[in-house]
Write a structure and sequence with these properties.
Length: 276
């Protein structure tokens, strides 16, 4: 999120503080969520800070009324927010006044923005790298995909095949459970097959806990257990393509060859019939 603070050059400092606090109060709630996440704030700390956004400066008693928090608790929360630089304390005579520290908040969000921009650049670089490797191997009908983004692409590519009704069966040698970080990709893949009434036959390694398999009792699939270890790898045969994926290494291949796919399907079907 890009946060824009309008700085008004004027001699009335109190007016400037009130103006900035009103601008913050108008910002979406996900603005506050970013601050809570960035500074690891508790629910009450976030609540107090959110309340301070709506005012310029306030004493503890009015703040306690607005938040319905005991004054002792409120002092403790304000002290921690002060140590984090999110709240400023000032005095008028013997009276303490509290306000949100706009400069610290702005710097935190700018830091977050820079991190996001760096992530976007890295994402684009990885995407271009994947495209390049795919094009280099296109003439050979073998595409290599690396990294989490590459494996995600393979899963989505199979999903598209079934969504376009280009295949009617699904054959797989796979892992004992879904790989962390790919939950959404797997869920979409499984749901698309189920919606298209795809016949799914899946070999899994010994020790598979079927209660941890996504939608085990919900989706139409057949499973058979093989007496082998879980290597964190999978082999999928879909249409005229064969997909080989090592989830432990975040690396995979797509081989587009009709004859090879038919050969592997035949082997798979013979294997399937031999296992009870």
């Amino acid at each position: 999120m890009t946060t824009i603070f309008v700085v008004i050059i004027c001699t009335n400092i109190d007016f400037m503080i009130k103006y900035c606090c009103k601008q913050i109060a108008k910002m979406p709630k996900n603005f506050l969520k970013e601050i809570i996440t960035e500074f690891n704030l508790t629910k009450n700390e976030g609540f107090v800070l959110d309340t301070l956004f709506a005012v310029s400066e306030t004493k503890v008693i009015p703040l306690a009324r607005k938040t319905s928090l005991p004054r002792q608790t409120l002092y403790s929360l304000l002290n921690r927010l002060g140590r984090l630089g999110l709240v400023m304390e000032s005095r008028v005579g013997r009276v303490k006044l509290y306000s949100s520290n706009i400069e610290t908040i702005e710097n935190a969000l700018l830091h977050k923005k820079n991190e996001i921009e760096k992530s976007i650049i890295k994402f684009k670089e990885e995407k271009e790298k994947i495209k390049k490797e795919s094009v280099e191997n296109q003439n050979q009908k073998i595409a290599i995909y690396k990294g989490k983004l590459g494996v995600s692409y393979i899963l989505n590519e199979m999903t598209k095949t079934y969504s376009k009704n280009k295949a009617k069966t699904f054959r797989a040698y796979t892992m004992s459970q879904f790989k962390e970080g790919f939950e959404e990709d797997f869920k979409k893949f499984v749901e698309t097959r189920n919606e298209s009434n795809i016949e799914s036959r899946i070999f899994v390694p010994k020790g598979t806990d079927f209660t941890k398999i996504m939608g085990f009792n919900k989706y139409k699939r057949e499973f058979k257990v093989l007496d082998m270890e879980d290597f964190g790898c999978a082999l999928y045969i879909v249409g005229n393509k064969t997909y080989l994926v090592s989830y432990r290494d975040n690396e995979g291949f797509i081989i587009e060859n009709q004859n090879l796919a038919m050969f592997l399907k035949e082997i798979f079907d013979i294997h399937w019939k031999s296992i009870k």
